[in-house]
Write a structure and sequence with these properties.
It is a single chain. It is elongated and about 85 Å long. The strands form 2 sheets. The chain has a 6-stranded mixed sheet with strand order 1-4-3-5-6-2. The protein has a two-stranded antiparallel sheet with strand order 7-8. About 30% of the residues are buried. Helix 2 crosses helix 3. It has 7 helices and 8 strands, in the order E-E-E-E-H-E-E-H-H-H-E-H-H-H-E. With about 250 residues, it is of the alpha/beta class. The chain folds into 2 domains: about 80 residues, Dna Ligase, domain 1 (2-Layer Sandwich); about 150 residues, no CATH class. The protein starts with a strand and ends in a 5-residue tail after the last strand.
Length: about 250
Amino acid sequence: MPEEEGPGTGQAPAEKVRAPAEETGHRAQTWHYASGGRVHGPVETRELERLARTGALRRSDDVSSDGTSTWMKASEVPGLFAQAGKAAGAPEAWRRAAAYGIDAVSVFGTAYILYPFVVTAVITVLVGILWLFAAVIPGSPPDISFLGALAHPLVSHVLGWGGYLFYFSYLESSEWQATIGKQVMNIVVTDQDGRRLRFNRAAARTVAGLFSVASVIGAAICAFTERREALHDIVTGTVVRRGRIDS
């Protein structure tokens, strides 16, 4: 049994005993549930239903009503997954691909438009710095021929990839929990329990996502995993879901 998290002794139940759903009522006041290798809880019935509805609790996960030592599969709890319809579950692979396409156009299209203006600004600043040093240190006027060769790759990398990292990390950890593309396709990013991501976790997901996309297979496996998780979702413990999820 996985290690227990939250209030209590901190010890995992000594024994996992399977019990039919009738012996542990669905309307028990509080529950513990095992997901992602850990035991979570206690949570109220309403919260357990929300986890089932959003896909954070799977039918194969184990649950136990508070005050009992028996565990059962979540699918055995009567009515728990009654509202867990397709609209609140995992998105289709094409929906994720479409969202990424919209985001790529948004990020790199914006970078392309801003590029000449930013390059000009960077070169102007660098020229100013060189002339300032020339004024302080007597000598011949500074050679500025190399500035274009320096500014162009510097700006392209910072503006392109820096913008990419900030765009995904900020928006997926914001109150929207989604980039522009994901909002258009009505999907959001959460942790395994359906909660909003912190910025550092969203950033880690973004970096891992670059490797998923580069490898192709890392992104493609979302079409075959149970909750449509790509490699970067599995590595960072995140899930992409349909619809708006309360944080």
